[in-house]
Specification:
Strand content: 15-25%
Number of domains: 2
CATH class of the largest domain: Mainly Beta
Order of helices and strands: HEEEEEEEEHEHHHHHHHHH
Shape: globular
Number of helices: 11
CATH topology of the largest domain: Jelly Rolls
Largest sheet: 5 strands, antiparallel
CATH architecture of the largest domain: Sandwich
Helix content: 40-55%
Length: 301
């Protein structure tokens, strides 16, 4: 299973946002917790990363801060308590004209009541990487493209914004893997449960039952149910339903397939059954989810 593929695919069930922020003098911003994943790229200048626990971390030009599951954090000109920082204003306001002491890009995928991917939830609350841009010139190009897309939006921005945020997320995750080595992804340690998860992820449309999944795992139904909940944090069928609906949301965002076709692709016997489950999970009908434009105030950064 390609974990980065799975992670980025799950993020696409939400909407991509990005903005550029510049500040001078004594400054600081607190980014409240939100359901999704977000990042900051320091374009110019330096500052401090502030979290609720641990010491502040110095940030320099080119550094990237990644919040895999939307944990509250802050950026400031100097070390300060997180609670002292004013909350960042919501919306996609344009950056102030003129040079600033520090400039950074913020990007995020905010999920519509969806679940942050299991593997992202197991990463640290905040990830900090300092890329070697000589070794990764493509990352510098991506940052420049996203910066241009934010500062000079044009026709098709909704498409380009999502694609660029996708690509940056992929590269940040690769860098984290590279820096941390083989243990970067905290995989499900129970091999039997990992086997069942692979089947769910690869074939969400299969008529899975707890009994069938336990047979795939090679253990009794009782042991499977208990070990699955311990490893994943929820019962097998609850996880299966969540995954099917997440994949359905992704297909709604990325394809023009009829609702009935998407329903079958994610394991529902009818359009009605899929739509009912989707409304319970996301609080919105699939058709409205597909066509809804997010308001600027939805952006968490």
């Amino acid at each position: 299973m390609d974990v980065i593929n799975e992670v980025v695919g799950s993020a696409r069930a939400g909407q991509a946002f990005a903005r550029r922020i510049g500040a001078s003098g004594p400054w600081g911003l607190r980014f409240p917790a939100f359901p999704g994943a977000g990042f900051h790229v320091i374009l110019r200048g330096s500052g401090c990363l502030v979290t609720a626990v641990g010491e502040p971390v110095t940030l320099r030009q080119g550094d990237i801060v990644f919040a895999p599951h939307g944990t509250e954090h802050g950026l400031s000109h100097a070390a300060r308590a997180l609670g002292e920082l004013p909350a960042a204003a919501a919306g996609t306001q344009p950056a102030d004209p003129g040079p600033a002491a520090i400039e950074f890009l913020c990007g995020a995928y905010r999920l519509d009541r969806g679940q942050v991917h299991l593997f992202l939830r197991r990463l640290p609350d905040i990830v900090h990487v300092s890329p070697d841009y000589d070794r990764h010139p493509e990352l510098r190009s991506l940052i420049d493209l996203l910066d241009d897309d934010v500062t000079q939006p044009g026709p098709g921005t909704g498409v380009t914004r999502s694609a660029l945020v996708d690509l940056l997320l992929v590269h940040v995750l690769r860098l984290w893997q590279e820096e941390q080595g083989a243990g970067a992804w905290p995989a499900v340690g129970d091999a039997a449960i990992a086997a069942a998860l692979r089947e769910i992820h690869n074939c969400p449309q299969a008529p899975w039952t707890v009994q069938r999944l336990s047979q795939t795992a090679g253990i009794s139904r009782t042991a499977f149910t208990r070990r699955f909940a311990q490893s994943v944090g929820k019962p097998p069928m609850a996880y299966l339903i969540g995954w099917r609906l997440l994949k359905g949301a992704q297909l709604l965002r990325e394809t023009g397939e009829p609702l009935a076709v998407i329903a079958r692709q994610v394991g529902y016997s009818s359009e009605f059954a899929f739509a009912s489950a989707f409304r319970r999970e996301f609080g919105i009908a699939p058709g409205r989810f597909r066509h809804r434009d997010h308001e600027p105030g939805d952006i968490p950064t």
